[in-house]
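Entry 0007
Protein: 3-carboxy-cis,cis-muconate cycloisomerase
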Amino acid sequence: MRDVGLLFPGAAGDDVTDDVAVLRALLRAEVAWVRAQATAGLVPGPVADAVAAAADGLDAEPLTARVAAEAAAGGNPVIPLLAALRGAVPEHAAVVHAGLTSQDVLDTALVLVLRDAAASAAADLGRACAAAARLARAHRDTPAAARTLAQAAVPTTLGARCAGWLSGLHAARTFVTDVGDALPLSYGGAAGELSGVARLTDDPFALVDAWGAALGLPVPPGPWHTVRTPVTRASAAFAEACAALGHVAADVLQGTRPGVGELREPAAPGRGVSSAMPHKRNPVLSVLLRRTAIAAPHLAATVGSAAGHAVDERPDGAWHAEWSAVRELARHAVVAARLGAELLEGLEVDTDAVAANLRAALPDADGVGAAPAVVDRVLRATGFAADPGTHEGDA
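Output (structure tokens):
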């Protein structure tokens, strides 16, 4: 059984957060541990090469289904995965996972998945920021009716609204990037005391540092088996990204409504079709972004609740509740960032409709306040003032 995104439109082809990606991350963590032992001189280099080759030779998709089916017996997927990996390299089975516990490997694997998800989301958020900046610049001086509490309020500019999108997207991109770069290795052994690692070497922290280096992960001062800050921060960053994209979608959905008609989503073959009403062009990208904005806070709440229920040196159920929630939240961020970038890059603006709506709602409107100056300040603060096509962080 593999989740292929049947009930998650937009996620088809996701190879960053799906079950196979998680399994591959588990294997990466186990292989890197053997390589760390080789770096420390505890096992010969050819042994690490043999374990790596055995892991590469495993067929990930059927193995994922098998591990999923067998995981219930031990309560986590690491135990059946180890059986498969050790079975593939029986002559070196003793060095695989030596000194570790399941939580070390599963947490580290999830960190690898979350790091990849953060990188993917940040890249697409960068695209979304650049597109929002172009819209803000293009419509810096385009008068529009500002709406507060769902009613026409005062004149602003369409560019000022787009600058608001840019502010949220830029902050989310920064948060996601910073959190992704800081996600740490997980270690600690059976109860956070590293006794298993200490049986392998007189310098357990040197071995742990070598493991972190093999995976490119920072090594925290101590274990975080029950100190779930890395996961709660990651979930907060992903949730913020989903909220920023949801804000854009909400404005676009408002702008595409009949009677408003100021905005249109980018067209593509088959997009927005209705099974019953062929005359419709549904704003599907914004609909899917709104789905994410609705779902993400509840997933983040599950992660936060689990963190608050962590107990003793290993959680009894709270840890288990995190896995699917944080993975699903990462998937929402990855997919939404891609869809959001596509939406903003192709968003169509009907300036005639914008002007007509302003005249109808505020016939005596005069001026737009300091809205153009707001646009300029946001563009400068986010690094988009100099070159319309390049973000300063991407140059």
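Curator remark: Residues 28 and 390 are 35 Å apart (CA to CA). The beta strands are 143-148, 151-157, 263-264, 348-349.
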